[in-house]
Automatic annotation (TrEMBL):
SUPFAM superfamilies: RmlC-like cupins. Pfam families: FdtA (PF05523). This is FdtA/QdtA family cupin domain-containing protein. Residues 4-131 form the Sugar 3,4-ketoisomerase QdtA cupin domain.
Length: 134
């Protein structure tokens, strides 16, 4: 699974007035086509619960923290995101679930494509079958 996910450092400019981080097309290995963010996630709620066939995503905890549960059909890995200057690259074919959102957390998602419903695998059993065919 390690070739399908990667923690990427986001350039950080530090100064006494506050820090600044920039995400550009040189930060992520794809052209940015869509940006959205999750916030006000209620305690105990989960987001995600799907995989993509083609789309790449880059997740950043802009504020607070949350866990990303990643599954490739054989193994599971949990990554906690809690730094606004690091992001998690998730390549196609990885099931993801976002959970354990801290109060006030904000999850930024940068995607390689616009929303295309046909690219989603929303049932885990279907994901396992898809993974076994690959």
């Amino acid at each position: 699974m390690n070739d399908k996910i990667q923690i990427i450092a986001i350039p950080k400019i530090e100064e006494r007035r506050g820090n600044l981080s920039v995400i550009e097309n040189t930060t992520v290995p794809f052209d940015i086509k869509r940006v959205y963010y999750l916030y006000d996630v209620p305690a105990g709620a989960e987001r995600g619960g799907h995989a993509h066939k083609e789309l790449q995503e880059f997740l950043v905890a802009l504020s607070g923290s949350f866990d990303v549960v990643l599954k490739d059909g054989k193994e599971e890995q949990i990554i906690t995101l809690n730094k606004p200057y690091e992001g998690l690259l998730i390549n196609p074919g990885i099931w993801r679930e976002l959970q354990n959102f801290s109060s006030g957390s904000v999850c930024l998602v940068i995607a390689s494509e616009v929303y295309i419903e046909e690219d989603y695998i929303r049932e885990f059993d279907e994901f396992i079958a898809y993974s076994n065919r690959k």
